[in-house]
Design brief:
Helix content is 31%, strand content 18%. The protein has a seven-stranded parallel beta sheet with strand order 7-8-9-10-11-12-13.
Length: 358
């Protein structure tokens, strides 16, 4: 506990004892540290990684069996029945282990009871990254450096998707610079083994839903991410129409960070998600789960809705540096919270199975 409260990122210690310490970080987050006996470790882990509704549901199941469940274990008449591992807790309640990401009481307990939990996507399932920036716009590494680092991270292909020219502060690309970039990608590809380079763009969705580059330029690319970066405060009706118009463009493969939220800084834009999903399914257009920690966009609930609607997703790093490929883990975590399985995500596929126009 003394080591914990010595962390320099702490703004305030609101309570400290031998078994529990609570602090507020300078970032505004509250962090609790709990110490329990080894025999209670699994029970505590299950308790503190489950939402309140999930835990209440489990306690109700325990009560129906004449048991008492809390963070210290599962008990019958004062005698411990389980507690050392999470598996022991769930097994004693006649359930398989429910992954922590699903513990929200959104149907996971009912699914577990009939052995129908999803086989959640894992980081190793990703074969490619379809949203990557370079020095051509606001990235901090060259195309070749990004490609080599992607290969080190176990990826088989990446799409270089620098910004279109609407993002002036990022030196966005117009048709001529796109052609120049294509030549460089082709040159790099000739001597780079183990990873395939796709030529793409992150094209801006303008406020009327049209795109920041002409269809002729977009049609020459392998992969098109269409994103909203400004006027996110439009009315829900305007934003819905704006996104639908972009989705209906046959050159668009995926809508990037669909809500535009920045966690702790900017609220998500408002639109009719069900209508967006219906059109996305009709047009075979995917939605992105952006792995940047301040985005994590789509939200977990939107991921669930997309899965139910039959809309494919893309888990992408939105990498601006070679280190950002490590952020794919966050996107995978977000997908898992949304019940997403391997087959729900396009970039778990081999390259030949993607919709590549080149």
């Amino acid at each position: 506990m003394n080591h914990f409260i010595a962390f320099p990122g702490i703004a305030q210690v609101t309570g400290s004892g031998e078994t529990k310490t609570t602090v507020l970080l300078k970032s505004g987050l509250q962090v609790d540290l709990r110490v329990v006996p080894l025999k209670s470790f699994g029970a505590a882990l299950a308790y503190f990684t489950g939402s309140k509704p999930h835990n209440v549901h489990l306690r109700r199941i325990a009560q129906d069996r004449g048991l008492l469940l809390n963070e210290y274990g599962l008990f019958r008449g004062g005698a411990a029945v389980a507690g050392r591992t999470e598996e022991d807790i769930y097994r004693a309640l006649e359930l398989p282990l429910i992954p922590p990401e699903l513990r929200e009481d959104r149907g996971e307990i009912e699914a577990a009871a009939v052995n129908k939990l999803p086989k959640l996507i894992e980081r190793g399932d990703l074969r490619g990254d379809l949203h990557v920036h370079s020095l051509y716009t606001d990235g901090r590494a060259s195309i070749e450096e990004m490609a080599r680092k992607a290969r080190e991270n176990g990826l088989q292909y990446i799409a270089i998707t620098d910004h279109s020219h609407r993002i002036a502060m990022a030196h966005g690309l117009g048709p001529q610079r796109l052609r120049e970039q294509r030549l460089e990608i082709d040159r790099i590809a000739k001597h780079l083994d183990g990873v395939t380079l796709l030529h793409g763009i992150e094209v801006d969705i303008l406020d009327d839903g049209s795109l920041d580059l002409p269809d002729e330029a977009l049609g020459e690319l392998d992969w098109v991410v269409a994103s909203v970066h400004y006027k996110l405060e439009q009315s829900p009706l305007q934003m819905t129409r704006r996104l639908i118009k972009a989705i209906r463009n046959p050159n668009v493969d995926v809508i990037g960070h669909p809500s535009g939220r920045l966690l702790g800084h900017r609220d998500p834009s408002k639109f009719d998600l069900s209508e967006i999903l219906q059109v996305a399914r009709e047009e075979n257009c995917a939605l992105e789960i952006d792995s940047q920690p301040d985005r994590l966009d789509l939200s977990d609930s939107a991921c669930i809705a997309a899965k139910q609607a039959g809309v494919k997703l893309v888990v992408a790093s939105d990498a601006h540096s070679t280190r950002d490929f490590e952020l794919l883990e966050y996107g995978i975590n977000q997908a898992r919270r949304g019940w997403i399985e391997k087959d729900d995500v396009l970039n778990t596929r081999a390259l030949k199975s993607l919709r590549i126009r080149r």
